[in-house]
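Q: What would this chain look like folded?
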Amino acid sequence: MIIVSDEDFRSQAMESLAALGLTYEELAQQAEQRDFSSARAHALWVSIGGTIAR
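A: My prediction, written as structure tokens:
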């Protein structure tokens, strides 16, 4: 089992968003519209969706 701190999780999520050129808000909007800019964006939402406060 791997345990990740909340801080590490958030940091990695933000790095992943930056790599996609998106903010969390933009990714959440894509999820609401069910229209992701890429497969990677969709995969990231599956991983972090709803876990970071807007």
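The mean pLDDT is 94.
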